[in-house]
Amino acid sequence: MKANAQLDHLKKLREEARLGGGQKKIDKIHSEGRYTARERIDMLLDPGSFEEFDMFKLHRCRDFGMDSKQFPGDGVITGFGTIDGRIIYVFAQDFTVLGGSLSETFAEKICKIMDLAMKNGAPVIGLNDSGGARIQEGIESLAGYSEIFQRNVMASGVIPQISAIFGPCAGGAVYSPALTDFVTMVKKQSYMFLTGPKVVKSVTHEDVSVEELGGADMHASRSGVSDYPAESGEDAIRYIKKLISFIPQNNLENTPLAVCDDPVTRNSTGLNTIIPDNHNEAYDMKDVILETVDNRDFLEIKENFAPNIITGFARYNGMSVGIVANQPKHLSGVLDIDSSVKGARFVRFCDCFNIPVVTFVDVPGFLPGTAQEYGGVIRNGAKILYAYAEATIPKVTVITRKAYGGAYCVMSSKHLRGDINYAWPTSEIAVMGAKGAVGVLYGRQAQKQDDPAAFLAEKEKEYQETVANPYVAAQRGYIDDIIEPARTRTRICNALTLIKDKRDTNPMKKHGNIPL
Length: 516
Ligand code: HXC
What we know:
The chain is of the alpha/beta class. The chain has 3 domains: about 1-245, 2-enoyl-CoA Hydratase, Chain A, domain 1 (Alpha-Beta Complex); about 270-430 and about 470-500, 2-enoyl-CoA Hydratase, Chain A, domain 1 (Alpha-Beta Complex); about 435-465, no CATH class. It has 19 helices and 17 strands. The protein has helices at about 5-20, 25-30, 35-45, 105-120, 140-155, 175-180, 195-205, 210-215, 215-225, 235-245, 285-290, 335-350, 370-375, 375-390, 405-410, 435-445, 450-465, 470-475, 490-500, and strands at about 50-55, 75-85, 85-95, 125-130, 160-165, 170, 180-185, 190-195, 230, 300, 310-315, 320-325, 355-365, 395-405, 420-425, 430, 480. Strands 10, 11, 12, 13, 14, 15, 16 and 17 form an 8-stranded mixed beta sheet that branches. A 7-stranded mixed beta sheet has the order 1-2-3-4-5-7-9, sandwiched between helices. A two-stranded parallel ribbon has the order 6-8. The N and C termini lie far apart (about 60 Å).
């Protein structure tokens, strides 16, 4: 072939490969209001930056008539490109090719880019849309999944891994996204479950729809599998790009410093009065976060799951941070099983990737009750304690109001290597709330009084004034300073600047044994 003819041939082959399972299947995807795998990659990466690998790779299955069913690229598009100029490895499952089902060669393609991402220290983003293991292949496909799982685990804590689910994700296929750091699912278009409604019906006799069993809203609010329920394919892509902007390329790098046009010295006078006079009244901790971070820009993670704790990313003076905050607006900000697990996983992500954590504390304690005790609030509550205690990243803590009991210890206290710990004058730091404490200390004595209620109220006031304030902790040095709420932003920015190059270590060990 002459050079031109060779180039034309290559062009034709590429065009064929780009069609995946064919125009009809592409039209069907569009008619469902969905994007194709290639369109998703185009939306995700900087224009023109995508370099594709293995476009001509073919499956090796010869059974069930598969020798005549060949699609160049075999149902998954892999390669690398950039987001805001930073290298990203990506794979996108192409539902138009045999339902995006995973074959041995399909898995090999994903493993290739995961290996490259590991060697080169760049994030991997997986865009999932697949009917699961390719049924015609059987064991080869299971082997392929397992190879991916192994790489997910080796990459964990070394490079960020992010998954988006745009369509089906069922059976063992769910475990690769579950092993990654963040998962977003598109509402009404995607679902994740181990077994579908039919199997559920035959085993447990439950009637449940696909949406109820494994839809985006369910996983974002109940199971906690998903971090964000996206409104659409575009929204899922937007979320990933925003997420990437807050996190570093790998565990040896820091996140690039952003340009900050929000003055460090900006005061938030509204914060001086945000705590209600009645200390049992709620306020919105998100107002505190938004008031203090750069340009009120906060990306929340798992907003709908365990909303009694808030987790997410923001910046102070251009520095990327993870934020963990109790939310008095939900269950008074109490720590329970779900909020402990949510907080722990988030802190551990930040610790893996050198992202400082800023913690806002207003927590009345751990949630009492049989449901919590039977569910393992001891074991699960220990996770957040463990996560803060093992974290060697810079840690800044601001107590806004309550910091009671075990929850005081857990929430990035000085004793768990909190670097800079501040408290607002409204803080109440004590072993337990005044009511509970007085009940234990004076319950019997109260019964002997003419007016037990008045006696207890008096004792409560006394306890509150003597113990439940920030000054006792400040006298001990457990609190570095009691700060004016309006100046919280400035104080956090300065604290982060002070400790940004902090180095701390844990003893050499294979790995710790977090109470799973
Ligand atoms: C091979 C598959 C396939 C699969 C879909 N297709 N899933 N081919 N292996 N797993 C093919 C279909 O035959 C069809 O081909 C095309 O993809 C589109 O599928 P449709 O059924 O027409 O699409 P739709 O109606 O949208 O339904 C999508 C679906 C359904 C819900 C995903 O296809 C489905 O239930 N698939 C099987 C799911 C499954 O049981 N997978 C195995 C799970 S077990 P044609 O040629 O007709 O267009 C598993 C184990 C992994 O994954 C363990 C890892 C540890």
